[in-house]
Amino acid sequence: MKGVILAAGRGSRMGVVTNGLPKCQIVVAGKTLLDWQLGSLKSAGISQVAVVTGYKSDYLQSPLYETFHNPRWDETNMLVSLMTADSWLSQFPCVISYADILYHPGIVRSLYNDSEQITITYDLMWESLWRLRFSNPLSDAETFKVDDRNYLVTIGQQTQCISEIQGQYMGLIKTTPDSWQVIKELILELTPKQLDRLDMTGMFAGLLERCCPIKAIAISGRWCEIDSSNDLFVYEDMINSHKAWTHDWRE
Distance between terminal CA atoms of the chain? Predict the structure, then answer.
């Protein structure tokens, strides 16, 4: 099992915070986002990691990991960045991580221990996290529903009905070489413009239309997403105020 961290984007919603460095180099509670991610993956047993670079890629050169590069990072969405890691995804099972999330190693272990070809995690406690970030949590939340066997049914649509949200997708995915081949078949059906615009939840929706099963593992907290300067303030304060919770991430 290998790890792939998608760190090509600038993170424009962070404002001036990312004017001079990639989003994953933002410091949260004494560690960069990337260091948090590398630590969680390593603690979960994933020692070989690649980082997909784009914006300010010079800041992301390190002997601790390999790199893939998306030179069109400012014109494309996350799926194009993922495609730069084709040599790994075609050969090895991989845990794929967004670059702006922090998570407990146990969440990673739940992914790679699952036997399904494509597996994602989602948070049942999403609403409490979203209420820390938004006055109206539905302004940013998206639909997410699973069936009684914990396979994904619906994802990624805007909604004003909280009953359509059983949880929130976190930005962690496990793929296998077989499932990556299915994803590439989907990609081949897209025009270049469609591919450039397609995000990960759009990819999942496309896979569901093709009756491709996507396993969804429920978790309860022990993660957060840093998507804005307000998120940075909210979560850094929360982490610094809950030492046991922070320590728990390192177990």
Answer: 20
